[in-house]
């Protein structure tokens, strides 16, 4: 029996708050940095696509940018829809219920297969919109071809995202980093061969980027399955020890949890991707400039996204262990760390905007337009970085519908309408500018929409954490 402390028994001092913050920051970063490198490698594939298409021709760049707008809307919606696996697995891990994990993963894969096949059909239908737009024929052909070819990878992408969420939630993040780096190298090689016609292949221009994307997604799924088979960390929760038919109660639960996240991702990505479609009427230069600015900000966005993806299992495992106080502490440490990064990111983008633009294109007009848009990108770093991390923290609590409503209001209710007014200047709107602001008008609206989303989510996280503490 441990003796009761008295005046002569030294008591171990509780760690100070600053030490706790530092310890949690280190733990969060240890989980986040492999995700970050993997995410940077993944987005690096898009950077490679856009950069190589840009050096092929302005038409190839514009066509790939338009095709990528459909592709991004599709895969990001799938990512959100399939993210439901992460909080469910994380809470099982926190509660020590490891035997329940394989069932969740198997049902998640059934959900992924259905979602991927549906996305394949919808993406190809969406590509038909290019036939009804005032586009140069060469641009239209590249845009449609990109979607048609890349869409064959959507079932593989869906299954990979389920395994991604499962692996992250059992604290295994390095496999995705290694696989993404390998896929990046493979993507660069295939692009170099197919876009420019090396090694005896015919030069395919922007369409070569689509083939590269499709092949690399299937490679990533195969590599992930191989890693899981060989690594000891997956044996305790190995999901492929036997066949399991669809279990409708679990599938309904995963769809109920994941659908609002998918709608949220769709609302946000359409606020970015539809801009490219709306700018097409002004020619290739504004579309290309928008693609460059969006592509680079997507690169910096990987840091807060990676922190959010690491924060989700950290918070979820605390909730599974019935420790809402630690869950709240971890959530706010993640938000604070993200705020620090967002300030540094904003300063860097504003200072280096012209060299960044020139790294993407040799066209002076496109580079100048892109540099102007990067100023607005710097402005929304604070709100954009914050909202993604807060969203992940809230999802760890299995709260998905209120964030969906907020994102719909911010992006579809404010951002897109305001962007159309400023960017297109319809004369029937009383406060519309006399001359269309084109891409700049849309990016001003993005700043407003992201600020509304970040502010609302901040309030929402505070209420959710207080509610769970009160329930204890």
From TrEMBL:
It comes from the Bacteria. GO terms for molecular function: antiporter activity; xenobiotic transmembrane transporter activity. It is found in: Cell inner membrane. One of its GO terms (cellular component) is plasma membrane. Keywords: Antiport, Cell membrane, Ion transport, Membrane, Transmembrane, Transmembrane helix, Transport. The chain crosses the membrane at residues 27-48, 68-89, 109-126, 146-164, 176-195, 201-227, 257-280, 292-312, 332-354, 366-383, 404-429, 441-461. GO terms for biological process: monoatomic ion transport. It is a multi-pass membrane protein. InterPro entries: MATE_fam, MATE_MdtK, MdtK-like. Its main location: membrane. NCBIfam families: matE (TIGR00797). This is Multidrug-efflux transporter. It comes from Rhodoferax lacus.
């Amino acid at each position: 029996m441990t003796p009761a402390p008295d005046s002569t028994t030294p008591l171990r001092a509780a760690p100070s708050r600053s030490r706790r913050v530092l310890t949690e920051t280190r733990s969060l970063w240890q989980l986040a940095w492999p995700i970050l490198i993997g995410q940077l490698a993944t987005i690096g594939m898009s950077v490679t696509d856009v950069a190589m298409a840009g050096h092929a021709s302005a038409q190839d760049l514009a066509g790939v940018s338009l095709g990528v707008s459909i592709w991004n809307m599709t895969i990001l919606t799938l990512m959100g829809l399939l993210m439901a696996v992460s909080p469910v697995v994380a809470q099982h891990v926190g509660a020590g219920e490891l035997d329940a994990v394989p069932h969740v993963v198997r049902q998640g894969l059934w959900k992924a297969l259905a979602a991927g096949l549906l996305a394949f059909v919808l993406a190809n239908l969406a590509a038909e919109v290019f036939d009804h737009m005032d586009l140069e024929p060469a641009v239209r052909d590249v845009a449609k071809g990109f979607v048609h070819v890349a869409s064959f990878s959507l079932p593989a992408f869906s299954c990979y995202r389920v395994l991604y969420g499962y692996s992250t939630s059992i604290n295994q993040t390095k496999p995705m980093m290694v696989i993404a780096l390998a896929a990046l190298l493979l993507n660069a090689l295939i692009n170099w061969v197919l876009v420019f016609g090396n090694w005896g292949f015919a030069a395919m221009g922007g369409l070569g980027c689509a083939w590269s994307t499709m092949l690399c997604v299937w490679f990533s799924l195969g590599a992930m399955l191989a890693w899981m088979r060989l690594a000891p960390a997956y044996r305790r929760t190995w999901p492929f020890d036997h066949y399991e038919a669809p279990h409708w109660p679990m599938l309904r639960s995963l769809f109920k949890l994941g659908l609002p996240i998918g709608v949220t991702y769709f609302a946000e990505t359409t606020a970015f991707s539809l801009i490219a479609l709306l700018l097409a009427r002004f020619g290739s230069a504004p579309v290309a400039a928008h693609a460059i600015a969006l592509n680079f900000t997507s690169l910096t966005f990987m840091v807060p996204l990676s922190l959010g993806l690491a924060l989700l299992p950290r918070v979820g495992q605390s909730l599974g262990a019935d420790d809402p106080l630690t869950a709240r502490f971890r959530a706010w440490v993640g938000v604070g760390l993200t705020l620090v990064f967002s300030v540094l990111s904003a300063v860097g983008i504003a200072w280096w905007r012209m060299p960044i633009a020139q790294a993407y294109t040799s066209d002076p007009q496109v580079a100048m337009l892109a540099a102007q848009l990067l100023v607005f990108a710097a402005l929304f770093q604070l709100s954009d970085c914050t909202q993604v991390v807060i969203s992940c923290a809230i999802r760890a609590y299995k709260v998905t519908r209120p964030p969906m409503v907020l994102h719909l209001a911010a992006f579809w209710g404010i951002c897109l309408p305001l962007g159309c007014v400023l960017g297109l200047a319809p004369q029937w709107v009383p406060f519309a500018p006399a001359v269309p602001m084109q891409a700049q008008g849309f990016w001003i609206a993005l700043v407003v929409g992201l600020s509304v989303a970040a502010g609302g989510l901040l309030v929402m996280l505070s209420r959710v954490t207080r509610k769970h503490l009160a329930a204890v």
